[in-house]
Amino acid sequence: MTVTRFSIKKPVVLMYPPLEQAFDEYEDLEKSYNAVVLKIDAKNRQELIHDLKNKYKDYTINIVATSGPLYHHYGKFDREIIDLLPDLKAVCHNGAGYDPVDIDYLVQKNIPLSNVVGINDASTADTNLFLILATMRNYFLGNKNIKANKWRSGLPIGNNPKDKTLGILGMGGIGKDVNRRCKVLGFEKIIYYRRNQLPSEEEEGAEFVSLDQLLAQSDIISINLPLNASTHHFLDREQFEKMKDGVILVNTARGAVVNEVSLMEYLKNGKVKSYGSDVWENEPWHINEELIKMENVVATPHMGTWAKEVIYDYEAFQVKNIKHFIQHGKVLTIVPEQQQNF
Q1: pLDDT at site 259
Q2: Residues in domain D-isomer specific 2-hydroxyacid dehydrogenase catalytic (predicted)?
Q3: What is the CA radius of gyration of the chain?
Q4: Class in CATH terms, 12-118+308-338
Q5: Which of the residues are catalytic?
Protein backbone atom coordinates (compact mmCIF):
# COMPACT_ATOMS: atom_id res chain seq x y z
CA MET A 1 0.00 0.00 0.00
CA THR A 2 1.31 3.43 -0.97
CA VAL A 3 0.13 6.26 1.29
CA THR A 4 -0.98 9.61 -0.09
CA ARG A 5 1.46 12.31 0.99
CA PHE A 6 0.51 15.92 1.45
CA SER A 7 3.51 17.41 3.22
CA ILE A 8 6.54 15.78 1.56
CA LYS A 9 6.75 14.27 -1.91
CA LYS A 10 9.90 12.25 -1.25
CA PRO A 11 10.46 11.74 2.48
CA VAL A 12 14.08 11.39 3.57
CA VAL A 13 14.51 10.57 7.25
CA LEU A 14 17.85 10.83 9.03
CA MET A 15 17.66 8.41 11.97
CA TYR A 16 19.83 8.64 15.06
CA PRO A 17 20.72 5.28 16.63
CA PRO A 18 19.92 3.04 18.30
CA LEU A 19 16.96 1.19 16.81
CA GLU A 20 16.17 -1.56 19.30
CA GLN A 21 12.65 -2.92 18.71
CA ALA A 22 10.45 -1.25 16.09
CA PHE A 23 12.05 -2.78 13.00
CA ASP A 24 8.73 -3.59 11.32
CA GLU A 25 7.47 -0.05 11.82
CA TYR A 26 10.52 1.50 10.14
CA GLU A 27 10.29 -1.07 7.33
CA ASP A 28 6.66 -0.06 6.77
CA LEU A 29 7.73 3.59 6.74
CA GLU A 30 10.07 2.79 3.84
CA LYS A 31 7.61 0.57 1.95
CA SER A 32 4.23 2.22 2.46
CA TYR A 33 5.43 5.81 2.59
CA ASN A 34 8.21 5.46 0.00
CA ALA A 35 10.59 6.98 2.55
CA VAL A 36 14.35 6.82 2.47
CA VAL A 37 15.70 6.13 5.97
CA LEU A 38 19.34 7.06 6.47
CA LYS A 39 20.72 5.35 9.57
CA ILE A 40 23.55 7.27 11.18
CA ASP A 41 26.61 5.08 11.75
CA ALA A 42 29.11 7.79 12.71
CA LYS A 43 31.08 7.06 15.87
CA ASN A 44 31.16 10.62 17.19
CA ARG A 45 30.10 14.21 16.49
CA GLN A 46 33.05 14.96 14.22
CA GLU A 47 32.23 11.98 12.01
CA LEU A 48 28.55 12.94 11.94
CA ILE A 49 29.38 16.47 10.77
CA HIS A 50 31.69 15.03 8.13
CA ASP A 51 28.96 12.67 6.92
CA LEU A 52 26.38 15.45 6.73
CA LYS A 53 28.74 17.49 4.57
CA ASN A 54 29.79 14.57 2.38
CA LYS A 55 28.03 11.21 2.69
CA TYR A 56 24.53 12.69 2.87
CA LYS A 57 25.07 15.87 0.83
CA ASP A 58 23.02 14.63 -2.15
CA TYR A 59 20.00 13.74 0.01
CA THR A 60 17.21 16.20 0.73
CA ILE A 61 16.84 15.36 4.41
CA ASN A 62 13.51 16.73 5.59
CA ILE A 63 12.87 14.79 8.81
CA VAL A 64 15.29 13.87 11.59
CA ALA A 65 14.46 11.11 14.06
CA THR A 66 16.42 11.92 17.22
CA SER A 67 16.88 9.73 20.28
CA GLY A 68 17.76 10.17 23.94
CA PRO A 69 21.21 8.54 23.68
CA LEU A 70 22.24 10.85 20.81
CA TYR A 71 23.82 13.27 23.28
CA HIS A 72 26.16 10.56 24.56
CA HIS A 73 27.87 10.13 21.19
CA TYR A 74 27.07 13.19 19.10
CA GLY A 75 26.44 16.01 21.54
CA LYS A 76 23.36 18.17 21.34
CA PHE A 77 21.21 18.34 18.21
CA ASP A 78 21.89 22.05 18.00
CA ARG A 79 22.47 24.99 15.66
CA GLU A 80 25.69 23.53 14.27
CA ILE A 81 23.95 20.31 13.18
CA ILE A 82 20.64 21.92 12.20
CA ASP A 83 22.35 24.42 9.91
CA LEU A 84 23.80 21.49 7.94
CA LEU A 85 20.23 20.39 7.16
CA PRO A 86 18.81 23.22 5.00
CA ASP A 87 15.72 21.22 3.96
CA LEU A 88 14.76 20.14 7.48
CA LYS A 89 11.01 20.32 8.04
CA ALA A 90 10.47 18.39 11.29
CA VAL A 91 12.27 16.69 14.16
CA CYS A 92 10.65 13.65 15.80
CA HIS A 93 12.25 12.74 19.11
CA ASN A 94 12.27 9.26 20.63
CA GLY A 95 11.64 10.09 24.28
CA ALA A 96 9.60 12.22 26.63
CA GLY A 97 12.43 14.53 27.67
CA TYR A 98 13.95 16.38 24.74
CA ASP A 99 16.79 18.30 26.37
CA PRO A 100 19.32 16.80 23.88
CA VAL A 101 17.56 18.89 21.20
CA ASP A 102 18.01 22.68 20.90
CA ILE A 103 14.34 23.61 21.13
CA ASP A 104 15.09 27.35 21.16
CA TYR A 105 16.77 27.20 17.76
CA LEU A 106 13.99 25.03 16.33
CA VAL A 107 11.47 27.62 17.52
CA GLN A 108 13.53 30.31 15.83
CA LYS A 109 13.65 28.28 12.61
CA ASN A 110 9.93 27.41 12.85
CA ILE A 111 10.70 23.68 12.72
CA PRO A 112 8.31 21.51 14.77
CA LEU A 113 9.62 19.09 17.37
CA SER A 114 7.59 16.12 18.58
CA ASN A 115 8.27 13.95 21.60
CA VAL A 116 6.75 10.78 23.03
CA VAL A 117 4.12 11.61 25.62
CA GLY A 118 2.75 9.36 28.35
CA ILE A 119 4.37 6.10 27.27
CA ASN A 120 7.13 6.26 29.86
CA ASP A 121 4.97 7.40 32.79
CA ALA A 122 4.20 4.04 34.37
CA SER A 123 7.69 2.58 33.91
CA THR A 124 9.38 5.66 35.34
CA ALA A 125 6.92 5.77 38.25
CA ASP A 126 7.81 2.12 39.00
CA THR A 127 11.46 3.14 39.24
CA ASN A 128 10.45 6.10 41.39
CA LEU A 129 8.60 3.81 43.79
CA PHE A 130 11.56 1.44 43.95
CA LEU A 131 13.88 4.33 44.87
CA ILE A 132 11.50 5.64 47.51
CA LEU A 133 11.41 2.27 49.25
CA ALA A 134 15.13 1.64 48.77
CA THR A 135 16.11 4.96 50.36
CA MET A 136 13.60 4.75 53.21
CA ARG A 137 14.50 1.18 54.18
CA ASN A 138 18.24 1.11 53.28
CA TYR A 139 17.77 -1.95 51.10
CA PHE A 140 20.91 -1.30 49.05
CA LEU A 141 23.03 -1.20 52.20
CA GLY A 142 21.38 -4.44 53.32
CA ASN A 143 22.22 -6.02 49.97
CA LYS A 144 25.82 -4.90 50.36
CA ASN A 145 25.96 -6.27 53.93
CA ILE A 146 24.63 -9.74 53.18
CA LYS A 147 26.98 -10.17 50.22
CA ALA A 148 29.85 -9.35 52.58
CA ASN A 149 28.58 -11.87 55.18
CA LYS A 150 27.84 -9.03 57.63
CA TRP A 151 24.09 -9.67 58.04
CA ARG A 152 22.69 -6.48 59.66
CA SER A 153 25.92 -5.43 61.35
CA GLY A 154 26.12 -1.63 61.31
CA LEU A 155 23.02 -1.40 59.11
CA PRO A 156 20.96 1.75 59.87
CA ILE A 157 17.34 1.11 60.80
CA GLY A 158 14.99 2.31 58.09
CA ASN A 159 11.57 3.94 58.16
CA ASN A 160 8.09 3.08 56.94
CA PRO A 161 5.72 5.56 55.23
CA LYS A 162 3.54 5.65 58.34
CA ASP A 163 3.13 9.22 59.66
CA LYS A 164 5.28 10.55 56.79
CA THR A 165 4.50 13.19 54.18
CA LEU A 166 5.45 12.57 50.56
CA GLY A 167 5.93 15.67 48.44
CA ILE A 168 5.73 15.35 44.65
CA LEU A 169 7.59 18.13 42.90
CA GLY A 170 6.01 18.29 39.47
CA MET A 171 2.63 16.62 39.00
CA GLY A 172 2.59 15.72 35.33
CA GLY A 173 2.02 12.23 33.98
CA ILE A 174 4.84 10.62 35.96
CA GLY A 175 4.01 12.53 39.13
CA LYS A 176 0.39 11.41 38.89
CA ASP A 177 1.47 7.78 38.52
CA VAL A 178 3.81 8.16 41.51
CA ASN A 179 0.85 9.45 43.50
CA ARG A 180 -1.30 6.45 42.50
CA ARG A 181 1.41 3.96 43.46
CA CYS A 182 2.25 5.62 46.76
CA LYS A 183 -1.32 6.02 48.00
CA VAL A 184 -1.41 2.34 48.95
CA LEU A 185 1.81 2.53 50.99
CA GLY A 186 0.24 4.30 53.96
CA PHE A 187 1.75 7.79 53.84
CA GLU A 188 0.08 10.18 56.25
CA LYS A 189 -0.27 12.74 53.48
CA ILE A 190 0.75 13.26 49.86
CA ILE A 191 1.24 16.83 48.72
CA TYR A 192 2.34 18.27 45.40
CA TYR A 193 3.56 21.45 43.76
CA ARG A 194 3.32 22.53 40.14
CA ARG A 195 2.73 25.84 38.40
CA ASN A 196 -1.04 25.40 38.38
CA GLN A 197 -3.32 23.33 40.59
CA LEU A 198 -4.82 20.27 38.95
CA PRO A 199 -8.59 19.71 38.71
CA SER A 200 -9.71 17.84 41.82
CA GLU A 201 -10.43 14.61 39.92
CA GLU A 202 -6.81 14.52 38.73
CA GLU A 203 -5.37 15.14 42.20
CA GLU A 204 -6.69 11.77 43.43
CA GLY A 205 -6.34 12.75 47.07
CA ALA A 206 -3.07 14.68 46.82
CA GLU A 207 -3.05 18.21 48.24
CA PHE A 208 -1.81 21.21 46.24
CA VAL A 209 0.67 23.38 48.17
CA SER A 210 3.18 26.12 47.47
CA LEU A 211 6.80 25.25 46.75
CA ASP A 212 7.94 26.52 50.15
CA GLN A 213 5.24 24.47 51.88
CA LEU A 214 6.28 21.33 50.02
CA LEU A 215 9.94 21.84 50.94
CA ALA A 216 9.11 22.49 54.62
CA GLN A 217 6.55 19.71 55.12
CA SER A 218 7.88 16.76 53.11
CA ASP A 219 9.73 13.83 54.66
CA ILE A 220 10.35 12.45 51.18
CA ILE A 221 10.49 14.60 48.05
CA SER A 222 9.90 12.97 44.67
CA ILE A 223 11.44 15.06 41.88
CA ASN A 224 9.37 14.82 38.70
CA LEU A 225 10.09 18.08 36.87
CA PRO A 226 11.05 18.36 33.20
CA LEU A 227 14.48 19.87 32.53
CA ASN A 228 14.47 23.25 30.84
CA ALA A 229 16.06 26.65 31.36
CA SER A 230 13.78 27.45 34.31
CA THR A 231 14.32 24.12 36.13
CA HIS A 232 18.09 23.77 35.73
CA HIS A 233 19.47 23.44 39.30
CA PHE A 234 15.93 24.04 40.57
CA LEU A 235 17.02 22.45 43.84
CA ASP A 236 20.06 24.28 45.18
CA ARG A 237 21.31 25.53 48.54
CA GLU A 238 18.38 27.93 49.02
CA GLN A 239 15.87 25.10 48.60
CA PHE A 240 17.87 22.58 50.66
CA GLU A 241 17.90 25.01 53.58
CA LYS A 242 14.08 25.13 53.52
CA MET A 243 13.73 21.33 53.77
CA LYS A 244 13.22 19.25 56.89
CA ASP A 245 16.29 17.87 58.60
CA GLY A 246 16.75 14.29 57.44
CA VAL A 247 14.69 14.67 54.26
CA ILE A 248 14.94 11.96 51.59
CA LEU A 249 15.15 12.98 47.93
CA VAL A 250 14.29 10.78 44.95
CA ASN A 251 14.97 11.86 41.37
CA THR A 252 13.72 10.19 38.18
CA ALA A 253 13.42 13.46 36.23
CA ARG A 254 16.76 14.78 35.03
CA GLY A 255 20.04 14.99 36.93
CA ALA A 256 20.54 18.70 36.27
CA VAL A 257 17.30 19.61 38.06
CA VAL A 258 19.43 19.18 41.20
CA ASN A 259 22.71 20.96 41.84
CA GLU A 260 24.71 17.84 42.63
CA VAL A 261 27.65 19.76 44.15
CA SER A 262 25.36 21.48 46.64
CA LEU A 263 23.51 18.22 47.27
CA MET A 264 26.72 16.49 48.36
CA GLU A 265 27.25 19.12 51.04
CA TYR A 266 23.81 18.41 52.53
CA LEU A 267 24.22 14.64 52.24
CA LYS A 268 27.44 14.91 54.22
CA ASN A 269 26.02 17.10 56.99
CA GLY A 270 22.85 15.00 57.33
CA LYS A 271 20.35 17.64 56.27
CA VAL A 272 19.52 15.27 53.40
CA LYS A 273 19.36 11.78 54.86
CA SER A 274 19.59 9.95 51.54
CA TYR A 275 19.30 10.45 47.81
CA GLY A 276 17.91 7.93 45.37
CA SER A 277 18.44 8.82 41.74
CA ASP A 278 18.12 7.24 38.33
CA VAL A 279 19.42 10.35 36.54
CA TRP A 280 22.70 12.28 36.69
CA GLU A 281 23.80 15.70 35.54
CA ASN A 282 26.56 14.57 33.20
CA GLU A 283 25.47 11.04 32.38
CA PRO A 284 26.66 8.66 31.22
CA TRP A 285 30.38 9.29 30.82
CA HIS A 286 31.06 12.04 33.35
CA ILE A 287 28.81 11.40 36.31
CA ASN A 288 29.95 12.58 39.73
CA GLU A 289 31.73 9.49 41.07
CA GLU A 290 32.06 10.86 44.58
CA LEU A 291 28.31 11.37 44.73
CA ILE A 292 27.28 7.93 43.46
CA LYS A 293 29.72 6.17 45.82
CA MET A 294 28.33 7.83 48.96
CA GLU A 295 26.79 5.33 51.41
CA ASN A 296 23.54 7.30 51.60
CA VAL A 297 23.05 7.43 47.82
CA VAL A 298 21.07 4.81 45.89
CA ALA A 299 22.25 5.06 42.29
CA THR A 300 20.83 3.46 39.14
CA PRO A 301 21.93 4.10 35.52
CA HIS A 302 18.85 5.77 34.00
CA MET A 303 16.70 2.63 34.03
CA GLY A 304 13.32 4.33 34.26
CA THR A 305 12.49 3.42 30.67
CA TRP A 306 14.94 0.53 30.31
CA ALA A 307 12.27 -2.05 29.52
CA LYS A 308 11.58 -3.77 26.21
CA GLU A 309 7.94 -2.75 26.21
CA VAL A 310 8.75 0.94 26.70
CA ILE A 311 11.54 0.98 24.13
CA TYR A 312 9.26 -0.59 21.52
CA ASP A 313 6.42 1.82 22.30
CA TYR A 314 8.83 4.79 22.13
CA GLU A 315 10.16 3.79 18.74
CA ALA A 316 6.76 2.87 17.31
CA PHE A 317 5.26 6.18 18.41
CA GLN A 318 8.18 8.06 16.89
CA VAL A 319 7.34 6.41 13.57
CA LYS A 320 3.68 7.44 14.02
CA ASN A 321 4.82 11.06 14.37
CA ILE A 322 6.94 10.77 11.24
CA LYS A 323 4.12 9.20 9.22
CA HIS A 324 1.63 11.80 10.42
CA PHE A 325 3.95 14.60 9.37
CA ILE A 326 4.48 13.05 5.93
CA GLN A 327 0.72 12.80 5.40
CA HIS A 328 -0.60 15.90 7.12
CA GLY A 329 2.29 18.33 7.49
CA LYS A 330 2.11 18.29 11.28
CA VAL A 331 3.28 16.01 14.07
CA LEU A 332 0.95 14.30 16.52
CA THR A 333 2.60 15.50 19.73
CA ILE A 334 4.14 18.95 19.45
CA VAL A 335 6.27 20.00 22.44
CA PRO A 336 4.84 22.66 24.80
CA GLU A 337 7.18 25.43 23.61
CA GLN A 338 5.68 25.22 20.12
CA GLN A 339 2.01 24.50 20.79
CA GLN A 340 0.96 28.03 19.86
CA ASN A 341 2.89 27.94 16.59
CA PHE A 342 1.68 24.65 15.08
Answers
A1: 98
A2: 44-334
A3: 22
A4: alpha beta
A5: 254, 283, 302
